[in-house]
Amino acid sequence: MNTYLILKTLHIISSVLLVGTGLGSAFYLFFANRSGSVAAQAVVGRLVVRADWWFTTPAVIVQPLTGIAMAHMAGWPITTPWLALSIALYLLAGACWLPVVAIQIRMARMAQAAHAAGTPLPAQYMRLQRWWEGLGYPAFIAMAVVFALMVNKPALWGG
Which of 71, 59, 78 is nearest to 21 (CA)? Predict the structure, then answer.
């Protein structure tokens, strides 16, 4: 297997980990938040934070490294329209993801504390939950469009 195919394999696996972990974590925390169970929110919140550190963060690093290396090897300038748009959308998703990480850490801590104390979640948890969800939707949509651009490599403006 040549270097390009190794990079491509790593790129695809990391994209699956990135989007799959994000979607799976979002699914479970979304529904745990609607369960009315502080215990469920505490457990799922802790695991979502863990999944971000173990799977999402390494994938976030591997994606641009392998992507830029493959583009260089294939002779595609970063200014190639589909590639430039993909990078912009990836950065948009990242700009949404970074605050989401901080938010879900705070949410997990609040849920753990409330569960340990046997108290309801504070009102601030619900405000954070709305921000967490609100930032998650554009990030997921951006990554779905990146997938479409990567697969189709469409001719866009000037391309």
Answer: 59
Q: Which residue has 């390009």 as its token pair?
A: 4
- Residue that the structure tokens 């997938």 belong to: 147
Residues 6+ apart with CB under 8 A from 75: none
CB count in 10 Å sphere of residue 84:
17
pTM above threshold 0.70? yes
| Structure tokens given for 37 | 């169970």
- Asked if residues 56 and 22 have their Cβ atoms less than 8 Å apart, the reply is yes
Decide if 128 contacts 62 (C-beta within 8 A).
no
Q: How far is CA 97 from CA 11, 35, 121, 151, in A?
A: 19, 24, 23, 23
Q: Please measure the distance between the N-terminal and C-terminal CA atoms of the chain and give it in whole angstroms.
A: 31
* pLDDT one-digit tens code per residue, 51-101: 999 999 999 999 999 999 999 999 999 999 999 999 999 999 999 999 999
> Which residue carries 């990078």 as its tokens?
87
- Which of 146, 10, 8 is closest to 82 using CA atoms? 146
Length of the chain: 159
